[in-house]
Structures are given as structure tokens and as C-alpha cells.
UniProtKB/TrEMBL annotation:
Lineage: Eukaryota, Viridiplantae, Streptophyta, Embryophyta, Tracheophyta
Family stated for the protein in its record: Belongs to the MLP family.
Organism annotation: Citrus x changshan-huyou
GO biological process, one term: defense response
Superkingdom, natural source: Eukaryota
UniProt xrefs under SMART domains: Bet_v_1 (SM01037)
Domain annotation Bet v I/Major latex protein: ranges: 2-103
Protein name listed in UniProt: Bet v I/Major latex protein domain-containing protein
PANTHER family: BET V I_MAJOR LATEX PROTEIN DOMAIN-CONTAINING PROTEIN, POLYKETIDE CYCLASE/DEHYDRASE AND LIPID TRANSPORT SUPERFAMILY PROTEIN
InterPro entries the record matches: Bet_v_I/MLP, MLP-like, START-like_dom_sf
Amino acid sequence: MALVGKMETEVEIKSPADKFYNTFSSKAHTVPNMSPGNLHGVEVHEGDWESHGSVKSWTFSAGSLVKWIWEYEKLQEDGPTPSKYVDFVTDLTKNIDAHLLKEEQN
């Protein structure tokens, strides 16, 4: 059984793609406010909030579809696959999308 894997998911959004991208590229510290039920805090462990290559790593596609890809390594061979993150990022994406749409209407 492999200890290293890769997972991905896509979530359709209605808010402007550039605003969604900018939320993560330069305003990641605001994400917990947009989805408090899913995310309780964000910290920079290496780098900073805006530099590519910082510990936070997000993958986006252009348009109204967000594509998340993350790689993982299990600590033990018989450990579970971290599939719970698919549901987590799907809910997170929908909450941020709703928040940005609400901002657009105000």
C-alpha cells in the first residue's frame, strides 16, 4: 500500500474567479471569517501571505470552476486515506463563493 497519494476535486462557483483567486493569493487570513464553520484559523508557517511557495498552497483554474489538488503522505501504511478533505474544501469553497457574491450585491 502506498504512503503517498494525490487527491483533487472541482467545485463550480458563481462569484468572479479573480476575486476568488485573490482571496487565497493575498487575503488568505480572511478565509476563516468567510467560512467559520469549516476553517478556524490560518497561519503562515513558512514564507508570507502573498508569496508563492509559502506553506499554504492553492491550485485554481480560470473561469467559474475551482480545482483543488493536494498531495499527502501517510505516517503509517495502514492509515486511512484523508478523503474527508474533499468534503471540507467543497464546503469551504461554497461558503467563500456565497460570501463573495454577497459582497458583490452590497
